[in-house]
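Protocol step 4 of 6: structure prediction from sequence.
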Amino acid sequence: MIRPLAAAPAAVATAPSTRRLGVVIVTYNSAAVIEQLLDTLPAALSGIATHRVMVVDNNSADATPHIVARRDDVTLVRNPRNLGYAAACNVGAAHLDDDDDLLLLNADLRPEPGSIARMLAVADEHDQIAVVVPRLVDDHGGTALSQRREPTVSRAVGEAVLGRRARRFSLSSEVVADAGRYETSGPTDWATGAAMLITSGGRRRVGRWDERFFLYSEETDYCLRVADAGMLTWYEPTATMQHSGGAAHTDPRLWSLLTVNRVKLFGKRNGPAAARLFWAAAFLGEVLRLPRHPRHRAASGALLRLALSRTIPFRTVRWS
């Protein structure tokens, strides 16, 4: 649930920031996109006096480490295996000082000039802000629906039954689809994690990323823990980054992981009865769409295996 500020932050400042920033980019077979991101970063970091850029590579099998190693403006950290996104974020954060802000970026981003300084300016306005997220646009310049509401059973049921039509109502969808919300700076329950600035105060209050989320739902978990700590996730439309988007909607394996992790996240934060209802809604949504795409068949099977493993509600068991 969004907690309002006592006073909204003022208009975003453009003065040079005195904050210290660590930029962490997690890569895995990212050779096709990483150089373009690194080339756009200097302009995006303009106005930030103290910063360092680090690429944490999850044992890529392609040329990603070699591309990064050729550059003298980036530190390369190579993990011995694919640790997952959350664990790689923690590896990168461990290389920073406690007073450093942390900016996490996907490798397929292209931030606009000055965008990162604008995110830091928002964080300067109020110490209740723990996370700042930018406006994300697709490859055609359209604003991505990146803001989300807290997961609930009613929203899981709405999305299962109504699909995209559920977005018309706040009680029936996690996705914030109101165009006006993407033109206005303000708090959000959580946001998709392609780019997240975590303030030093937020890092101290919220702690490490939950590494049980190998990929997907780790940003949801973190933002909801921000709210648990009495702090805010803040959306800032004047900071814009282009994001090509992931392959979850076309890759059955990734879609299965995304779907299962949504259920695991809900189970982590809620009781057994609610967790089982959320699982049932997620399963219904996949079954209703079985003929549409192989991803739904894969996800429904993964959800069945999850139920048979008897790990719902996932609070006190070791996740596989």
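Step 5 (inspection) to follow. Residues 252-269 form the longest helix (18 residues).
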